[in-house]
Amino acid sequence: MSTHNFLLAIQSESCYKKRKAALLQLYGKAWYFFMKTIRFSIWEDGEYTWPQGYGFVPFLTGYLHEDNKKRPCVLVVPGGAYYIASPTEAGIVALDFYHKGYQTFVLTYTTNLLGTIPLKDQPMRDLARAVRIVRSRSNEYSIKPDCIATCGFSAGGHLTASEGVHYNDIEEKNPLYSNVSARPDAMLLCYPVITSGSYTHEGSMQNLLGANPTADELKYMSLETQVTPQTPPSFLWQTVTDEIVPVENSYLFADACKKNGVSFAHHVFSQGPHGLSLATASWAQGIFGELYTLDPFKYTVEAIKAGTANVDVSKEKLADLEREFPNHMPGNPCSREPNAEVSIWPCLADAWLRTQWSL
Fold it and tell me: In angstroms, how far is CA 240 from the centroid of its own chain?
């Protein structure tokens, strides 16, 4: 599939109808007709200055109950090596926690598709702003303001844990949010990238920090060295056989939590590849819901084709994108297989959160 056709497929009405039909089949009619969905940019005009946004501005997508009952909240942060934000770990996860009684959001944040400018702290600032917005609007969205969890996968787990340990470092200049805490009340870390040391995921670190980071930058983003007693309670899970992010990453963070007196749970499953998301049959069949987390890709490719990207992109690079991104399309199962052992993790996380928050 060409990049042009891929972009058309993302936006086409027929593709939307197929996604809607699949989700109706998965969850039934009731949820669709009684759930409120919202979407809005997290940065106001002039605030977002990432030079390779090409018109993209990070945004939140919300899935909300409308019964005016104050509920806990889960804010989902997809993975993707800081290269993309994967739809396989986005809306379907938010919907799962929605059905467990949470108000839920997905953050589509700044990623580094071209790899020419390191992200540094931009994704962390995106997430901190998202937490502040959700907390500041807790009455509007019927959220318990002291029951907000962030839930990150892979590199999104690194982003989640980064914001969780460094929330006090992230300056907020907008007076609407400057007095609102960016500290999540809990973190769910799903096969997370944690360390910049020997067990790191090199692609994530390079997209984040560039090819030649300083020793101080590496330490700052090696999160097992940054845990303090003020770090939010943390729920971690991973598989022993994760072939991309070594399982030692979650052990390192869990050990740091233990040493610092941070409440945590750590689940290690016996087998399964990286990127299992919900690990359910519907996930394995490629039923992901909407593909809005690929918006940064869409804007970047459009800028390249229009000649406004201000960076040289080879034909080989475009060809790589054309080969890669159809794998994220709904209905493309790739090599995904359901994993019954792993698929219980949302229930474990739900029970853990309710225990932490005495719900």
Answer: 22
Query: Residue 13 has what pLDDT?
Result: 40
Report the domain count for the chain. Answer: 1
What CATH number is given to the structural domain containing 130? 3.40.50.1820
pLDDT in tens, 307-343: 888 888 887 877 777 677 655 555 555 678 999 999 9
Range of the domain at 219: 3-356
Model pLDDT for residues 142-154, shown as the tens digit of each residue: 999 999 999 999 9
What pLDDT is attached to residue 319?
75
